[in-house]
Design a protein that fits this description.
The chain is α+β, with helices and mostly antiparallel strands. It contains ten helices and twelve strands. The model has no long low-confidence stretch (mean pLDDT 93). The structure holds adenosine-5'-diphosphate (ADP) and magnesium ion (MG).
């Protein structure tokens, strides 16, 4: 007997994530009803992953479930918000129990780890696509924005950049190596949103953005919003050994600067708060690295180890560029 839409919701989503006492009504009614505490603001964001664009149609469903939530959590992290609730719009070509079970496992493991409760959604039939909206809580007025940076502020990034991009090149057979690139695939398929780091950064960062389209593009957004420019010191950009080898062999900076899917945080800190930041960062799950400086002159300049500027700064992914 094929699963009905309602069986499917019941079986795979209704109790898949833990209860929060601020959920007045969860899955099952026409709307979810959620309690926002006094003195808090709600941060809301939605992301869609489309088969064939963001992941291969035959990709591991567990990874799809994980990543569909991770990308939204990364946006909340960039604002310094504490994740609370999620809704899920799922478009499926067919209701396949094995696929749904694995998808829901990937989603709910990450949800539980961040105390996120799935409170509603929509299920339709069609080409595979997943939209997840996440809701987070902020102390009123405390959101980190893209536009708070000022000349003189230091530019930092969490973790390493380019691992997901290199893993993708390897999967596509465009970069072949004897060494093992296995560890990088985890970064591509199961990114860890820097939620705890974002919460702590909210007290020191002047501006913040998450790196989803590549450092050059996302730092570019921060610079435009902050009405300034920056110099980036390329030798300081934190990269895994595999990515450093790749850049050394090919001279191609686009993997760490523009491949995207990093889900790290790029943020700015006024110089006088540098010591406070570096102290805070001792508690982070990943290192933070100082990579550049905000300047009055607009635009992004990439300074190489020999002091010369990179002639062309690689740009990020744009769904509508190229015109098809
Ligand atoms: P309505 O038609 O009133 O919008 P639905 O019949 O689509 O409601 O959904 C029934 C309930 O199941 C609602 O509470 C809805 O939020 C929830 N729901 C539907 N699809 C999903 C899903 N993929 N994940 C989580 N909750 C879902
Ligand atoms: Mg209804």
């Amino acid at each position: 007997v094929p699963l009905s839409e309602f069986d499917l919701i019941d079986r795979y989503f209704t109790s898949s994530t833990g209860p929060r006492d601020d959920v007045v009504l969860g899955i099952g009614d026409d709307c979810a009803v959620l309690r926002v505490p006094d003195q808090r603001e709600l941060a809301v964001t939605i992301d869609t992953l489309v088969a064939g664009v963001h992941f291969a149609a035959d990709a591991e469903p567990e990874w799809i479930g994980h990543k569909a939530l991770a990308v939204g959590l990364s946006d909340l992290a960039a604002m310094g918000a504490e994740p609370a609730w999620a809704t899920l719009a799922l478009t499926l070509p067919q209701a396949e129990p094995a696929w749904l079970g694995a998808f829901s496992r990937g989603f709910s493991e990450l949800a539980l780890a961040h105390r996120v409760q799935l409170v509603g959604g929509d299920t339709t039939r069609g080409p595979l696509a997943v939209s997840v909206q996440v809701h987070g809580l902020l102390r009123a007025g405390a959101a980190m924005r893209r536009g708070g940076g000022a000349p003189g502020d230091l530019v930092y990034v969490t973790g390493t950049l380019g691992d997901a991009g290199l893993a993708l090149l390897a999967e596509q057979g465009l970069y072949v190596r004897d060494g093992c690139l296995g560890g990088l695939r985890e970064q591509l398929h199961r990114p860890s949103p820097r939620v705890a780091e974002g919460l702590l950064l909210a007290s020191v960062a002047s501006a913040c953005i998450d790196v989803s389209d590549g450092l050059a593009a996302d730092l570019g957004h921060l610079l435009r919003a902050s009405a300034c420019g920056a110099t980036l010191y390329l030798e300081r950009v934190p990269c895994s050994e595999a990515v450093r080898d790749y850049v050394a062999e090919t001279g191609d900076w686009s993997v760490p600067l523009a491949a995207g899917d990093d889900y790290e945080l790029c943020f700015t800190v006024p110089e006088e708060k540098q010591a406070v930041l570096e102290n805070l960062a001792l508690d982070f799950s990943v290192p933070v690295t100082w990579i550049g400086l905000l300047e009055p002159q607009k635009g992004l300049r990439c300074c190489q180890a020999d002091g010369r500027q990179l002639a062309a700064v690689p740009s990020g992914y744009d769904h509508f560029a190229g015109g098809d």
